[in-house]
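Justification of resources, computational component.

The compute hours requested in this renewal are based largely on the per-chain cost of generating structure records like the one below. Each record pairs the submitted sequence with a full structure-token output. That output is archived, and it is also reused by downstream analysis tasks.
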Amino acid sequence: METAVELPESVISAFHLMWDGFPEPVNIIHKSRKIMAVNRAGQAVGLTPGVFCSRLGSPKDHKGCLANKCVATGEPQYVSIAKETHEAVGFWLPIEGYPEFYIHFGVGTSLNYKTGKKVSPLEEHRAS
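The structure output for this chain reads:
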């Protein structure tokens, strides 16, 4: 049985204000891995609130996930990911006042900044 998990609308609105213009997918995620909010770039690749991020892709796609560490410590976490054609960095950022939630995104996960070419986040991750 799933427990109801909610964030105030003001937090969701602030998230969209800050992240909708970011060129890569960004999500607010609950510690259960339920996606609570998705920016425009995430929506464009099919991410939707209510989905569990841990069920997207294969288990290999989540190797190195630092969500648990972010929630446990309340400190930002990041990991560098060597891609075939470039480097990417994944981030997990705690949300002040909401310790069960974090913002998750990557830089270089859906866009190769060296070439300017878009890449599929999951396909690129599998290639590395």
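The chain has one domain: 9-127. The chain is about 25% helix and 30% strand.
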